[in-house]
């Protein structure tokens, strides 16, 4: 297996991840019922997000944290949800890639999940 080295690799990873996550019995409903994401609009944003993080190309513009607060108000984003997101992400990375950027994708996702979990939990307390 090869490492994540270009935009095409990022798109493959994100596409395979979303194919799994939207069908997942634990967190799929966030994407389909709560946020009701339009994949044709959402996926290009995710490609840009992960390309920026993994390849250092500053193509992402946005505030990912801000997008999740309204979802958290409708249906609480809890630690178990972030853990499931991570589980699916890590499995998808390992099924398709191997190398430094692949491991970085997992580590960065772990950090993102920890921060988001903390911020969503605090927002529910306010």
Automatic annotation (TrEMBL):
Keywords: Heme, Iron, Metal-binding, Transport. The keyword Nuclease does not apply. It comes from the Bacteria. Heme binds at residue 118. InterPro entries: Globin-like_sf, Globin/Proto, Hemoglobin_trunc. This is Hemoglobin. GO terms for molecular function: heme binding; metal ion binding; oxygen binding. It holds the Pfam family Bac_globin. The keyword Iron applies. It comes from Epilithonimonas hungarica.
């Amino acid at each position: 297996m090869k490492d994540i080295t270009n935009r095409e690799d990022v798109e493959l990873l994100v596409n395979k991840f979303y194919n799994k996550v939207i069908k997942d019995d634990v967190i799929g409903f966030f994407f389909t019922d709560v946020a009701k994401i339009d994949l044709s609009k959402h996926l290009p944003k995710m490609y840009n997000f992960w390309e920026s993080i993994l390849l250092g190309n500053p193509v992402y513009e946005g505030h990912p944290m801000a997008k999740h607060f309204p979802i958290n108000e409708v249906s609480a984003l809890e630690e178990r949800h972030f853990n499931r997101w991570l589980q699916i992400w890590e499995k998808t990375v390992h099924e398709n890639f191997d190398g430094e950027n692949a491991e970085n994708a997992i580590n960065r996702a772990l950090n993102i999940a920890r921060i988001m979990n903390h911020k969503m939990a605090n927002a529910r307390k306010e």
